[in-house]
Design brief:
- By secondary structure, the protein is mainly β.
- The protein contains four helices and 15 strands.
- The protein has one domain: Porin, CATH 2.40.160.
- It has a 13-stranded antiparallel sheet. A two-stranded antiparallel ribbon has the order 10-15.
Length: 258
């Protein structure tokens, strides 16, 4: 079963596999980030701009939202020949819940200049399997396959993949499928027990120096908690070919009342 079913030109229904981790009757935001990426790419193709690719995606998460039908919208904020800025958003339960601003740039052959990427991670076959439901409830977490090496609390490397399509009966790019897993970075190498400490992210920003190939997503992750209630999760992004970008998630850190 896919994570979403299209119910109209701009509406989507989440399936049971989108159930959240902080609260299981709410949506896990990860699939929504993939859906918005898919819509940005689809809008580009509708406008005849398939020469542009996403190189930065900045998502703002406005608040939790329930497992209800969502309405989406896409608009071009800054058109251009070689660079465009596109915004897409989701409304659920009568309020806006997630937005993305995506910079799209024209492609070109820079093979002779390529270099500087971090070293590849040990592959998924070299990394021990780990059950993420050890730390988290929720249907989305149960739907993913994880490999993990934890160096210490808040520091480790993870490989993650899913066998579920993003949108039922729709062709979805490797980028959109991969972005639909990005948000798990904050939960796979936790610094504190999420049953005792809340550390949800209010955003996720990623910069890409090439397109991911799909399949396994590798995360080389560090989690920092500050002394004033803020935190930061930072990850270098990998596929089985090597590094392809980086992401950051700003956290709100709060102790939970027993």
């Amino acid at each position: 079963m896919a994570y979403f079913r299209r119910t109209g030109a701009t509406t989507f229904q989440p399936t049971e596999h989108v159930g959240g981790a902080w609260k299981t009757d709410e949506q896990h935001v990860a699939p929504t980030l993939g859906l918005l990426t898919h819509l940005v790419e689809a809008d580009r193709e509708k406008r005849g701009r398939d020469d542009l690719v996403a190189t930065r995606l900045t998502f703002d998460i406005w608040g939790p939202y329930r497992l209800e039908e969502m309405t989406t919208d896409v608009r071009v904020l800054r058109p251009g020949r070689g660079v465009e800025l596109v915004e897409a958003g989701v409304v659920c339960g009568g309020r806006r819940v997630v937005t993305v601003r995506a910079w799209l740039t024209a492609t070109g052959d820079t093979t002779e200049l390529a270099g500087g990427a971090p070293a590849p991670l040990p592959g998924p076959d070299e990394t021990p399997a780990w059950d993420p439901t050890t730390d988290w409830p929720g249907a989305f977490v149960a739907s993913i396959d994880v490999r993990r090496t934890l160096d210490e609390p808040g520091r480790g490397t993870v490989w993650v993949r899913t066998g579920h399509p993003l949108v039922e009966d729709e062709e979805v790019s490797a980028l959109a499928r991969t972005v639909g897993l990005f948000d798990v970075a904050n939960g796979m190498t936790v610094r504190a027990d999420p049953r005792k400490v809340a550390f949800p992210n209010v955003d996720l920003s990623t910069h890409l120096h090439r397109a991911p190939e799909g399949g396994w997503l590798g995360l080389d992750t560090s989690v920092v908690f500050g002394a004033d209630g803020a935190g930061l999760t930072s990850s270098v992004l990998h596929d089985e070919r090597g590094a392809f970008g980086a992401l950051a998630q700003g956290l709100v850190v709060r102790g939970l009342t027993p």
